[in-house]
Amino acid sequence: MKPFLKIIKYQLQDLIRGKWILLYALLFFVLTDGLFRFGNDGSKVVLSLMNITLFIIPLVSIVFGSMFFYSSREFIELLLAQPIGRGSLYRGMYVGLATPLSLAFVAGVGIPFIYNTYHTGAFGGIFIILLVSGVTLTFVFTALSYYISVKNEERVKGVGLTILIWLFFAVIYDGIVLALIFMFSEYPLDKASIAVTLLNPIDLARIMMLLMVDVSALLGYTGAVFKQFFGSPLGLVVAVSALIIWMIIPVWLGLRSFAKKDL
Amino acid sequence: MIKISKLDKKFGKLTVLRELDMEIETGKITAIIGHNGSGKTTLIKCLLGLDKPTSGLISINGFQLNGDWSYRDNIGYMPQLARFPENLTAREVLRMIKDLRGFNGNMEDELVAFFNMDGEMKKPIRTLSGGTRQKVSAIIALMFNPDLLILDEPTAGLDPISSSLLKDRLIHEKEAGKTIIITSHIMSELEELADNLVYLLDGRIIFTGTIEEIIKRSGEKNLERAVAYLMTENGA
User: Fold this and answer.
1) Could you read off the pLDDT of B162-217 as tens digits, one per residue?
2) CATH 3.40.50.300 is held by the domain B2-233
3) ipTM summary value
4) Could you tell me if B11 lies within 8 Å of chain A, comparing CB atoms?
5) Any catalytic annotation for residue B189?
6) Which residues contact B138 (CB under 8 A, 6 or more apart)?
7) Which one from B153, B173, B189, B191 is the annotated catalytic residue?
8) What are the C-alpha distances in Å from A193 to residues A26, A166, A211, B58, B66?
9) Nearest-CA residue of chain B relative to A89?
10) 3-state secondary structure (DSSP) of residue B76
11) CB neighbour burial string for A13-51, b if at least 16 within 10 angstroms, e if fewer
12) B53, B42 Cβ separation under 8 angstroms
C-alpha cells in the first residue's frame, strides 16, 4: 500500500471512532427524517435539504478541517520525522478527512431518504445531484481549510479566517452580487452573472441543484439565462469543471506551502 | 558522523541559528543545552528536515540533506511534546508508524515490556497520561533500532522510575554503537549520560567539549557548576 493510502486508513480509523463525525451524520439524519415526517414528498425534501446543506457542509468542512489540522500538528511533526514525503502525508490527511465527512453526509441523508421513498420510487436524479454536490462541497471546503491552516501559524487566527471565508461565500458574496446587479441594472448582465457564479463554489452547487429540480423559473430573467447556459451540456461541463478547479487549486496551493513549511 | 557547517536559520526577521559549525561524533551521546529559545529544538528540526535551513549545510553519515527524505529511515526521534490520534490505541499508533515505515521487525514487544507498558497498549491514547504518552513516544523512537537517536527533552514529564529506565536504555543503545543527540535542562542527568556537550546561546555555540574537559576547565566539582561558571566567563 502507498504511504498516502496508509495515512487515509489510520486517519479514518481515528475519526470514525470520534464523536464529531457521528454527530455530523446524526444531524443530517434527524433533518432529513424530520422533513419526511412533516409530510413532504421526495422532491420537496431535496429542496429544503439543499438550502440547509449549502450552509452546513461548507461551514463544518472548513471549520472542522482547520481545527483538525491544528490539533494534529504535533503528530504531523512526528510523522514527518519518519521517512515519509510531505506530499503523501498532506494528500492522505486531506482525503482522509474529506472522505469521512462525505460519508457522514451521504449516510445521514441517504438512509432516511431510502426508507421513506423506496415504495414510491420518488428518489432519482435530484437526490443523486444533492449527494454529489454535497460531497463536492465537502472536498472543496476541506481543501480550503487545510490551505488556510498551513498558511497560518496561529490556531485562533486560522480558525477565525475559515469562518470569515465561509461567511464570505455563503452570505456576503450573494449580497455583493445583488448590489452589483442593482448598480448595473441598465446593462446586459447575463454573461457576467454566469461568470460571477463560477467564482463561488456554493453558488455553483446551488445552480446545479436548482436546474435539476426545475424551479429556475423562480429565478426570473437571470434564471432563464442560467437555464439556457447551465442546462446545456456545455454549461454542465463548465460547471462541473469549475467545481473541480475549486478543489484542485486549494489542494495544489496547500501542497506547495506544506512542502516548504517549517514545522 | 554529523557535520553542520555555517548553518543559519531565520524565521522571518528573527535569527534563531547563526553560522553554526559543529560535528557530532558517531557512537557518542551529545547533549545540546541552552536557555529556552536558544535554538536547540530548531537545530534538531533542521537535522530532521522539519525546518529548512536558511543557509548552510548538514550532512549525516555522508548524506547531504537536500529535501530527500529517505535518510530518515535511520533516525529515531522523540519530540518534546508527544501527541497522537486520540481515538487510536497505543498499540495501533505503533502499528501505524511501523506500517508507514514499511518495517517488518518486532522490537516493540520487548520495549513495551521494558517500559512496563503492557497494561496500557490497548487503551485509547486520549485516556493515557502525559507521562505514558511520553513512553509511547520513546518506544516509537527506539523500535526501529536506528543508528541515530534524537531526543528532545525526553525525561521531562516522566516519573523517576520511567526516567531512569529511559536513561538505562540510552546508555545501552550507546554501548551498542548508536549515536545519540539529547537536549535537557537537567545537568545531573547529562553528567550521567552524555559524552559531549554543546552550549547554545541565541543560536551560537558558546562552548563545546567533552563533559570531563568542561568540568576540568572550570575547576568546579560537577557539571551544573561548571556550566554556570563557563556561562559567566563567556558573558552569557
Assistant:
1) 999 999 999 999 999 999 999 998 888 888 889 999 998 888 888 888 888 888 88
2) yes
3) 0.92
4) yes
5) no
6) B78, B111, B115, B151, B154, B166, B169
7) B153
8) 37, 21, 16, 55, 48
9) B100
10) strand
11) bbbebeeebeebbebbbebbbebbeeebebbebbbbbbe
12) no
> Residues A154, A155, A161, CA angle at the centre, nearest 5°?
95
Count CB pairs under 8 A between chains A and B. Answer: 80
Asked if the C-beta of A92 comes within 8 angstroms of chain B's C-beta atoms, the answer is no
Q: Which residue, among A101, A98, A132, has the nearest Cα to A24 in the 3D structure?
A: A101
Residue B113 contacts A where some CB pair is shorter than 8 Å: no
Nearest-angstrom CA–CA distance, B158 and B131: 5
In B31-50, the residues whose Cβ lies within 8 Å of chain A are: 45, 48-50
Amino acid at A88: S
What is the per-residue pLDDT for A193?
77
Asked whether the CA dihedral B71, B77, B79, B84 is positive or negative, the reply is: positive
Tens-digit pLDDT profile for residues B55-71: 888 988 888 888 788 88
Burial class of A219 by CB neighbour count within 10 A (0 to 12, 13 to 18, 19+): middle
- The Cα–Cα gap between B125 and A101 comes to 22
Q: Please answer whether residues B38 and B205 qualify as being in contact, where contact means their C-beta atoms are separated by less than 8 angstroms.
A: no
**DSSP state letters, B15-44:** EEEEEEEEEE-TTSEEEEE-STTSSHHHHH
Q: Identify the bridge partners of residue B200 per DSSP, sorted by sequence position.
A: B205
The residues, ordered by sequence, that sit 6+ positions from A247 with a Cβ below 8 Å of its Cβ are: A136, A139, A140, A143
Taking the C-alpha atoms of residue A241 and residue A243, their distance in angstroms, rounded to an integer, is: 5
Give the β-pairing of B179-183 and B75-78: unpaired
Give me the count of residues in chain A: 263
Q: Tell if the CB–CB gap between A10 and B85 is shorter than 8 Å.
A: yes
Say which residue the cell 555555540 belongs to.
B205
Task: Give the torsion through C-alpha atoms of B214, B216, B219, B224, to 10 deg.
Answer: 40
CB contact under 8 A, B83 and A13: no
Chain B, 73 to 92: residues with Cβ < 8 Å from chain A are 73, 75, 77, 79, 81-88, 92
